[in-house]
Recover the amino acids of this structure.
């Protein structure tokens, strides 16, 4: 696995804040305040001051307890939320395995949904045509092509969603614990698919609580604690530090 | 298969257009796949409204506004109004309805408003044959001003996108705003030349009414059958207002985008 020197993800002094609760006062002036550095009352920084770069072909695992900013970081890299401070630049297309079933429409058939979701993620119609069989076979739902999506079992829903998004020919993969769902057999299949993509030179950005998964895919780790990037090192070192920090808890 | 392909990333605009079509098609498909009468419903609403007004103003009251045939006069404005009204009402919930998709894809967020304008616009265009049927049966004459239909559609699309870009993000923060929007839409229905014509207003209201961009737009549609309804000043003001509103919409949208994404 060649690690290219040119960075594909550049994160610079990244910060984002959220409101602590929905009731905190919100007026028109706040709304239009845009980016500013002062912390408004009732807000907290979910992530602040994070800087790092990711080279092509690297596999990065994000480690931290719940609510320390892992998913927020992933969403910022996916550019589905925008930072209040600093910047993220992503060079190249992204296949976001975040809320993978989000684009699926309950009323439409599996076939329509595959074309829709793949299309919204940037695939052309002819490209979907070319990969259609592969997508369906991977998800093992050939018998349900013309079934409305809402009638699928929850396992099938996740399978077809993973199958579509993981067939996007994008150089960067973002994975947010989607694999916790689905049965054991399919999960293993998903893992092999991710390994296959990694071997093909893709860049991986992986959020998980599962130490085995992190060790399996990742070479480098980012340790987040209280919204700060505490450690950026090899995955083994990061996990060691993480375990040491929480050993007594 | 596993090698990273060098496929050129679709240029942004092309990708936007592609997604726009996909979403508009999706909306239409969902609407028509879940109802047996499909297309008929999108026509029925304006027809029933037109029937009611026709009855009230020709049988109950003595109509001294608008032109004859009144049904054609009504429909030329009611059909575009349905487009406008339907789009803006849907804009009040678009970010809530699409939240999951917005959280998982990075398509430019203006697309949610734009695709609504497009899908409702396609429904509007699909309803034009109904207008044509009524025109034929009542013997209304079509004038060369019918070409203004295209201009009117473009102006209305610009205006509707502009208003949608203001309404959609603000509703995310102020949920009760959708009630206010409903009220304003109802007011706007009577404040726009739909059941009456631009020329029916008292002279002192003429200038004020022109600042409702729907006045100019609807009179453009109407001029296809009733060229007297066309008023250059009203249309000009409407054109300027539409562009200004679009600019305001883009501004509001840009300033609120960051906060909207955090909220949903």
């Amino acid at each position: 696995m060649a690690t290219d020197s040119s960075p594909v993800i550049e994160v610079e002094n990244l910060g984002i804040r959220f409101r602590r609760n929905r009731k905190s006062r919100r007026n028109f002036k706040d709304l239009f305040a845009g980016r500013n550095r002062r912390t408004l009352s009732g807000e907290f920084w979910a992530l602040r001051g994070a800087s790092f770069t990711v080279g092509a072909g690297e596999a990065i695992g994000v480690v931290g307890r719940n609510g320390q900013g892992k998913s927020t970081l992933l969403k910022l890299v996916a550019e589905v939320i925008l930072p209040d401070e600093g910047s993220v630049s992503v060079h190249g297309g992204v296949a976001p395995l975040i809320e993978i079933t989000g684009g699926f429409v309950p009323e439409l058939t599996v076939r329509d949904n595959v074309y829709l979701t793949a299309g919204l993620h940037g695939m052309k119609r002819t490209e979907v045509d070319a990969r259609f069989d592969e997508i369906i076979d991977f998800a093992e739902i050939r018998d349900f092509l013309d079934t409305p999506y809402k009638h699928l079992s929850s396992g099938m829903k996740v399978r077809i969603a993973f199958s579509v998004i993981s067939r996007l020919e994008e150089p960067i993969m973002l994975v947010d614990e989607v694999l916790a769902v689905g049965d054991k057999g399919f999960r293993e299949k998903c893992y092999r698919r991710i390994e296959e993509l990694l071997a093909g030179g893709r860049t991986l950005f992986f959020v998980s609580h599962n130490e085995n998964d992190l060790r399996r895919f990742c070479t480098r780790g980012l340790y987040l604690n209280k919204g700060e990037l505490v450690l950026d090192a090899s995955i083994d070192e990061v996990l060691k530090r993480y375990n040491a920090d929480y050993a007594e808890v | 298969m596993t090698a990273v392909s060098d496929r050129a990333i679709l240029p942004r605009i092309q990708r936007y257009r592609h997604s726009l079509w996909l979403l508009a098609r999706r909306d239409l498909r969902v609407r028509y796949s879940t109802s047996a009468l499909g297309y008929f419903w999108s026509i029925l609403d304006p027809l029933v409204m037109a029937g009611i007004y026709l009855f009230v103003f020709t049988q109950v009251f003595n109509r001294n506004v608008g032109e004859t045939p009144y049904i054609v006069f009504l429909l030329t404005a009611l059909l575009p109004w349905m487009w406008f009204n339907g789009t803006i009402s849907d804009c009040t919930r678009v970010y809530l309805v699409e939240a999951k998709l917005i959280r998982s894809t990075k398509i430019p967020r203006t697309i949610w408003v734009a695709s609504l304008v497009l899908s409702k616009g396609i429904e509007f265009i699909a309803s034009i044959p109904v207008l044509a049927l009524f025109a034929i049966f009542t013997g209304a004459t079509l004038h060369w001003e019918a070409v203004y239909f295209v201009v009117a559609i473009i102006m209305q699309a610009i205006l509707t996108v502009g208003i949608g870009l203001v309404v959609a993000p603000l509703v995310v923060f102020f949920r009760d705003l959708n009630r206010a929007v409903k009220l304003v839409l109802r007011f706007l229905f009577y404040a726009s030349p739909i059941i009456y014509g631009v020329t029916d207003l008292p002279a002192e209201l003429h200038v004020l009414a022109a600042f409702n961009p729907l006045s100019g737009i609807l009179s453009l549609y109407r001029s296809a059958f009733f060229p007297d309804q066309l008023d250059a000043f009203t249309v000009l003001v409407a054109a300027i207002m539409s562009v200004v509103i679009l600019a305001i919409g883009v501004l509001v949208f840009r300033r609120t985008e960051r906060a909207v994404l955090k909220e949903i």
About this structure: The longest helix of chain A spans residues 184-199. Chain A touches chain B through 44 residues (CB under 8 Å).
